[in-house]
Specification:
TIM Barrel, Type Iii Antifreeze Protein Isoform Hplc 12, 346 residues, 8-stranded parallel beta sheet, 11 helices
């Protein structure tokens, strides 16, 4: 698939998304700072979320709408989204700021009105959150726009993923990728099960990646080593700036180090290649070969006492050693001389 001018898939570098989410903490100025900091930290894309409290849930205080554990323990859903959402009146300006910074811009819509709004903004790609993977009518509506889709799969059974994928295809859209995700905030490494990402790639034959809510970059780098072509990570200016997402977000220095590690991992993965690499060329001489370890007179037989397989590699290859033993020297050979085939005979 292609997002903007970047190809995503085999043979291309991993596409790294910086998720702003609530880390603007209610400040448009800070939101713009995050866009530029993400670009400087090596992100390919800045992602926001497009919703209001009313498009996400309803304003109700009964127990169904209360969070009873985790990072947001004690919060009411409606009031949490009031704190976390990105005002819609900012989003055109943020998109323009991303264009100035030279970084891709995409968003996660959560209902039809937010999709329509993003269509008016002219977004080139959509993200579908893990929690919305079961909202097949919304997925169908997004897919029908014909734009590339990146869909997270946290909490989903294989059957649920299959239904969502088929919904995208039924809308005539084949430009999509699937992200493995542990939908916990923060996620712990033990529950990431990144091999599931590989299995999704085998089953659905689309680019895969990781939406990573864990602390640190181990999960992201491991995912790239296992074939991830998209990495998504929450990004903040500083975790001390309190907001609903700050506690599990990376600051610019951490994000930059993660991107550096990802790029190094990609170089280490490389391609299938046998033989001497350019870096190894100067060391090939330190392989073993057959050397004369004693002075040998013309006519003298070669034996385990006067020829040995040692380093360096200037003499005959070790595979010839059995044939060399018992041969006679056709000339005097000094100790410490690499053996040559033309110097010996029956």
């Amino acid at each position: 698939m292609k997002v903007g001018n970047k190809e995503i898939g085999a043979g291309f570098p991993a596409y790294v998304i910086a998720e702003m989410s609530a880390n603007h903490a209610g400040s448009l100025t800070r939101a713009k700072e995050i866009i530029h900091a993400a670009k400087e930290s090596g992100a390919d894309c800045i992602k926001i979320q497009t919703y209001t409290p009313d498009t996400m849930t309803m304003d109700c205080d009964n127990d169904y709408f209360k969070i009873s554990e985790g990072t947001w323990d004690g919060e009411n859903l409606y009031h949490l989204y009031e704190k976390a959402y990105t005002p819609w009146e900012w989003q055109q300006e943020l998109k323009e700021e991303a264009e100035k910074a030279g970084i891709d811009f995409l968003s996660t819509p959560f209902d039809k009105t937010s999709v329509d709004f993003l269509e008016e903004l002219g977004v080139e790609c959509y993200k579908i959150a893990s929690f919305e993977l079961v909202d097949l009518p919304l997925i169908s509506y997004i897919a029908a726009k014909g734009k590339p889709i990146i869909m997270s799969t946290g909490m989903s059974t294989l059957g649920e993923i299959e239904q969502a994928v088929q919904t995208i295809k039924n809308a005539g859209n084949s430009q999509f990728a699937l992200l493995r995700c542990a939908s916990a905030y923060p996620a712990i490494t033990d529950d990431m099960n990144i091999k599931t990402m590989q299995n999704m790639e085998q089953i659905f034959q689309v680019p895969v990646g990781l939406s990573d809510h864990s602390m640190g970059s181990v999960g992201a780098v491991t995912a790239v080593a296992l074939g991830a072509k998209i990495i998504e990570k929450h990004f903040c200016m500083d975790r001390s700036i309190e907001n609903p997402d700050s506690s599990f977000s990376m600051n610019p220095a951490e994000f930059a180090q993660m991107v550096k590690d990802i790029r190094q991992a990609e170089k280490a993965i490389g391609t299938v290649k046998y033989g001497v690499s350019r870096q190894e060329e100067s060391n090939i001489v330190f392989r073993r070969s057959i050397f004369c370890v004693q002075d040998i007179k013309k006519g003298e037989k070669l034996s385990e006492q006067n020829v040995r397989i040692i380093r360096p590699g200037y003499g005959l290859e070790p595979k010839y050693y059995p044939q060399v033993l018992g041969q006679r020297a056709l000339r005097d050979i000094k100790r410490g001389t690499p053996l040559r085939l033309e110097w010996i005979g029956e």
